[in-house]
């Protein structure tokens, strides 16, 4: 009964589903080490979740820098739940993707292989090395 009471109270006061939304400017995304060869163009698509519909915010190509693939996104502002999907032109589904909510991010966010949808299904490191990661850098928050 306690769980029903607490859950019911949270629903009545809208505390269970409401998360304060914070607008954030994305500076860059860095994929290290890149799982793509130099001839494969890769795009990052940033989509915001509005009313259960994904609306694209940006569609940017990456640039190879050493063993990393870097996406410069300085003109991209995000707010709320956002999906970053990494696409190749020859594949209709994302190669890998991840979700974030702007209320829970700081100046940067590092996602390890096990935290990224699509890469976590490679436990034997055949497609993605064990040290695979994505770093998302944000501008300083105004709040």
Keywords:
4-stranded antiparallel β-sheet; mainly beta; 143 residues; 8% helix; 1 helix; 5-stranded antiparallel β-sheet
Helix content: under 10%
Give the strand line-up of the largest sheet.
Answer: 4-5-1-9-8
Low-confidence stretches: 1-18
Shape: globular
Separation, N- and C-terminal Cα atoms: 39 Å
The main sheet comes to: 5 strands, antiparallel
> What kind of oligomer do you see?
single chain
* Rg measurement, Å: 17 Å
Roughly what fraction of the amino acids lie in strands? over 45%
The secondary-structure element order is HEEEEEEEEE
Secondary structural class: mainly beta
Set down the secondary structure blueprint.
Layout: H1 2-12, E1 23-32, E2 43-50, E3 53-61, E4 63-65, E5 68-79, E6 81-87, E7 96-101, E8 108-112, E9 133-138
Antiparallel strand pairs: 1-5, 1-9, 2-3, 2-6, 4-5, 6-7, 8-9
